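Internal tracking record. Fields below are filled automatically when a chain is submitted to the structure queue. Please do not edit lines marked as system-generated. If the sequence contains nonstandard residues, flag them in the REMARKS field before resubmitting.
Queue: standard
Priority: normal
Entity type: single polypeptide chain
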Amino acid sequence: MLSIRTITRYASRAISRLPSPSICRPLSTIRQPSILQSSWNAASRPTLTAAFSSSRIQQEKEGEVDDELVAKFESELQMEKEMRDTEEAPVSVKDFLENSQFELQDTPGQEEVLLTRQFGDESIRITFTIADLEPLDSESDRTLDDQALRDEDVGDIPEEGQSGGANTKGSVNQGRTKGGNIKVAPEDSIAPADRPEFETDESLAEDGEQESSFPARLNVTVHKAGQGALQIEAVAQDGLIVIDNVYYFPDPELADAKSAEKDWQKRGMYTGPPFGNLDEDLQVLLEKYLDERGVNTALALFVPDYIDFKEQREYLRWLSNVKSFVEA
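SYSTEM-GENERATED OUTPUT FOLLOWS
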């Protein structure tokens, strides 16, 4: 038999091996932190932030040439305003608008200009654009090309077959005879600089001759209720209206196609022959047809003048908008 001491020893060891109440506590009894306490601990926990400087971002935003560019735009604006009054329309433009039956529709910022009027039961629309204003580079290039051609004509002197007669008094290189001598023409006594073919633009201006205006395209559309539309493509230049094409559309919406579907239908239609292929009498009558509806010399003089006037205003608006954008 086991002694009382032995029983007591085994009992104490067994009790000591039992898990403690704190370790065996049920999960449901473990204290969970509240939502408010978690938020508070997160807010109170120190956070590491990177160094930030607003002045550095401001310096990177400003370019090195911004101020200089803004000053140049301002100088250009002042110079253009001093050169001409962009708010005051030219006298020719005012006279046409006051005495014409057409109403002008000009939207700032848009290239296209619209003229409308009624003629009996017809509605007439005329559109033109400032995009037709000839760039200065093209005009100067053409002037240089013309001058180069003149220089080539003067300096192009053939050398073959020249005889001693070419060195006689009063002979110039105008043309050769069969014998090889230079033919003397009456105009040879006139210095080349004084000849009409070598007149410069400045000399023409001094003589009071006006320079040729640039060609401005016109799109004239005549609508008749229930009868379709007639569309005429023409060019206005130097007070003349020159017709290029005459189209007829049974559906008036095709004349001013604004959707891809209408434009596709328009491309597949036979709208008429080239104007130059028509009988001359028919061409003359179509020109008179337009003249009666106000597409005449007055309009041909007005359109280039208004294109120049509007382009100047749009240029100043562009300068102002870009300047404001750069300095913002």
